[in-house]
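Hello Y.,

Per our agreement to keep a running log of every chain we model this quarter, I'm adding this entry. I've kept the format consistent with earlier entries: sequence first, then predicted structure.
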Amino acid sequence: MRILSFDIEDRMKGLGYYQIAGGLFGLYVTGRMFVQEPVLGGLQFLFYSIAGGLFAFSIYCGNRLRKSEVEGLQASIWNQIFQVFQINVAAFGFSYYSGFRIAFGIQIGDKIIPDAAFSLSGFGLKYTPDNTSELSLLINFVPFLIIYWLDKLKNDIETRKALISTEEQILS
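Predicted structure for the entry above:
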Protein backbone atom coordinates (compact mmCIF):
# COMPACT_ATOMS: atom_id res chain seq x y z
CA MET A 1 0.00 0.00 0.00
CA ARG A 2 1.28 3.48 -0.92
CA ILE A 3 1.75 6.06 1.82
CA LEU A 4 0.39 8.80 -0.42
CA SER A 5 -2.96 8.10 -1.99
CA PHE A 6 -3.80 9.66 -5.35
CA ASP A 7 -6.16 12.06 -3.54
CA ILE A 8 -3.38 13.25 -1.20
CA GLU A 9 -0.96 13.64 -4.12
CA ASP A 10 -3.54 15.65 -6.08
CA ARG A 11 -4.14 18.01 -3.13
CA MET A 12 -0.39 18.43 -2.61
CA LYS A 13 0.09 19.21 -6.29
CA GLY A 14 -2.74 21.75 -6.25
CA LEU A 15 -1.22 23.62 -3.31
CA GLY A 16 2.19 23.29 -4.92
CA TYR A 17 1.08 24.87 -8.18
CA TYR A 18 -0.58 27.68 -6.20
CA GLN A 19 2.70 28.45 -4.41
CA ILE A 20 4.71 28.21 -7.64
CA ALA A 21 2.33 30.58 -9.46
CA GLY A 22 2.36 33.03 -6.56
CA GLY A 23 6.16 32.94 -6.40
CA LEU A 24 6.59 33.40 -10.15
CA PHE A 25 4.18 36.33 -10.21
CA GLY A 26 5.95 37.84 -7.20
CA LEU A 27 9.34 37.51 -8.90
CA TYR A 28 7.89 39.13 -12.02
CA VAL A 29 6.49 42.10 -10.07
CA THR A 30 9.69 42.46 -8.03
CA GLY A 31 11.81 42.28 -11.18
CA ARG A 32 9.75 44.97 -12.90
CA MET A 33 10.06 47.26 -9.90
CA PHE A 34 13.81 46.57 -9.69
CA VAL A 35 14.38 47.46 -13.35
CA GLN A 36 12.36 50.68 -13.04
CA GLU A 37 14.27 51.84 -9.92
CA PRO A 38 15.99 55.12 -10.88
CA VAL A 39 18.73 54.89 -8.26
CA LEU A 40 19.58 51.71 -6.43
CA GLY A 41 21.22 52.06 -3.03
CA GLY A 42 22.51 49.31 -0.78
CA LEU A 43 19.40 49.19 1.42
CA GLN A 44 17.09 49.01 -1.59
CA PHE A 45 19.20 46.24 -3.10
CA LEU A 46 18.92 44.34 0.20
CA PHE A 47 15.13 44.73 0.20
CA TYR A 48 14.85 43.48 -3.39
CA SER A 49 17.11 40.55 -2.52
CA ILE A 50 14.91 39.61 0.43
CA ALA A 51 11.81 39.85 -1.77
CA GLY A 52 13.40 37.67 -4.44
CA GLY A 53 14.51 35.16 -1.80
CA LEU A 54 11.03 34.87 -0.30
CA PHE A 55 9.37 34.42 -3.68
CA ALA A 56 12.02 31.85 -4.65
CA PHE A 57 11.28 30.07 -1.35
CA SER A 58 7.60 29.96 -2.32
CA ILE A 59 8.54 28.37 -5.66
CA TYR A 60 10.82 25.90 -3.85
CA CYS A 61 8.04 24.90 -1.43
CA GLY A 62 5.53 24.57 -4.24
CA ASN A 63 7.91 22.44 -6.27
CA ARG A 64 8.43 20.07 -3.34
CA LEU A 65 4.66 19.65 -3.01
CA ARG A 66 4.31 19.27 -6.77
CA LYS A 67 6.76 16.36 -6.56
CA SER A 68 4.67 14.89 -3.68
CA GLU A 69 7.53 15.22 -1.21
CA VAL A 70 6.13 14.97 2.31
CA GLU A 71 8.95 17.19 3.66
CA GLY A 72 7.57 20.01 1.53
CA LEU A 73 4.53 20.25 3.80
CA GLN A 74 6.52 21.74 6.71
CA ALA A 75 8.43 24.14 4.46
CA SER A 76 5.10 25.25 2.94
CA ILE A 77 3.65 25.87 6.40
CA TRP A 78 6.59 28.18 7.16
CA ASN A 79 6.10 29.93 3.83
CA GLN A 80 2.49 30.61 4.76
CA ILE A 81 3.35 31.76 8.31
CA PHE A 82 5.57 34.50 6.81
CA GLN A 83 2.50 35.77 4.92
CA VAL A 84 0.03 36.11 7.80
CA PHE A 85 0.93 39.55 9.18
CA GLN A 86 1.56 42.76 7.29
CA ILE A 87 2.75 45.33 9.78
CA ASN A 88 3.97 48.94 9.91
CA VAL A 89 5.37 50.09 13.24
CA ALA A 90 6.94 53.52 13.39
CA ALA A 91 9.83 53.54 10.90
CA PHE A 92 9.66 49.84 9.97
CA GLY A 93 7.23 47.96 7.74
CA PHE A 94 6.94 44.42 6.38
CA SER A 95 4.49 42.69 4.10
CA TYR A 96 4.87 39.54 2.02
CA TYR A 97 2.20 37.54 0.26
CA SER A 98 2.73 35.01 -2.48
CA GLY A 99 -0.54 34.26 -4.17
CA PHE A 100 -3.77 35.85 -3.01
CA ARG A 101 -4.08 38.36 -0.21
CA ILE A 102 -7.37 38.94 1.53
CA ALA A 103 -6.38 40.99 4.54
CA PHE A 104 -8.22 43.00 7.14
CA GLY A 105 -6.83 45.16 9.89
CA ILE A 106 -6.45 48.63 11.31
CA GLN A 107 -4.45 51.81 10.88
CA ILE A 108 -3.78 53.77 14.03
CA GLY A 109 -3.03 57.45 13.73
CA ASP A 110 -5.05 60.34 15.07
CA LYS A 111 -7.96 57.92 14.97
CA ILE A 112 -8.38 54.19 14.38
CA ILE A 113 -9.33 53.38 10.80
CA PRO A 114 -10.37 49.92 9.59
CA ASP A 115 -8.41 48.71 6.60
CA ALA A 116 -8.76 45.96 4.00
CA ALA A 117 -6.55 44.76 1.15
CA PHE A 118 -7.20 42.38 -1.74
CA SER A 119 -4.39 41.67 -4.18
CA LEU A 120 -1.98 39.22 -5.78
CA SER A 121 1.64 38.52 -4.83
CA GLY A 122 3.50 41.42 -3.33
CA PHE A 123 6.28 42.41 -1.00
CA GLY A 124 7.02 45.47 1.03
CA LEU A 125 9.89 46.15 3.37
CA LYS A 126 10.49 49.69 4.43
CA TYR A 127 12.64 51.71 6.71
CA THR A 128 11.74 55.38 6.97
CA PRO A 129 13.34 56.97 10.04
CA ASP A 130 11.44 60.23 9.40
CA ASN A 131 8.03 58.58 9.89
CA THR A 132 7.74 57.44 13.49
CA SER A 133 4.01 57.82 14.05
CA GLU A 134 2.63 55.22 11.61
CA LEU A 135 1.09 52.06 13.02
CA SER A 136 -0.94 49.55 11.06
CA LEU A 137 -1.61 45.84 11.15
CA LEU A 138 -3.23 43.70 8.47
CA ILE A 139 -3.93 40.01 8.87
CA ASN A 140 -3.98 37.98 5.66
CA PHE A 141 -6.57 35.22 5.99
CA VAL A 142 -5.56 33.18 2.92
CA PRO A 143 -2.49 31.65 4.63
CA PHE A 144 -4.68 30.46 7.52
CA LEU A 145 -6.77 28.49 5.05
CA ILE A 146 -3.70 27.04 3.31
CA ILE A 147 -2.08 26.13 6.66
CA TYR A 148 -5.31 24.31 7.58
CA TRP A 149 -5.18 22.33 4.31
CA LEU A 150 -1.48 21.55 4.76
CA ASP A 151 -2.09 20.38 8.33
CA LYS A 152 -4.98 18.24 7.14
CA LEU A 153 -2.69 16.68 4.54
CA LYS A 154 -0.09 15.94 7.23
CA ASN A 155 -2.78 14.28 9.37
CA ASP A 156 -4.07 12.24 6.43
CA ILE A 157 -0.53 11.03 5.73
CA GLU A 158 0.03 10.09 9.38
CA THR A 159 -3.28 8.20 9.41
CA ARG A 160 -2.25 6.28 6.29
CA LYS A 161 1.14 5.47 7.83
CA ALA A 162 -0.55 4.12 10.96
CA LEU A 163 -2.97 2.09 8.83
CA ILE A 164 -0.12 0.62 6.79
CA SER A 165 1.82 -0.19 9.95
CA THR A 166 -1.20 -1.94 11.49
CA GLU A 167 -1.84 -3.85 8.26
CA GLU A 168 1.80 -5.01 8.14
CA GLN A 169 1.62 -6.18 11.76
CA ILE A 170 -1.52 -8.19 11.07
CA LEU A 171 -0.03 -9.82 7.97
CA SER A 172 3.23 -10.79 9.68
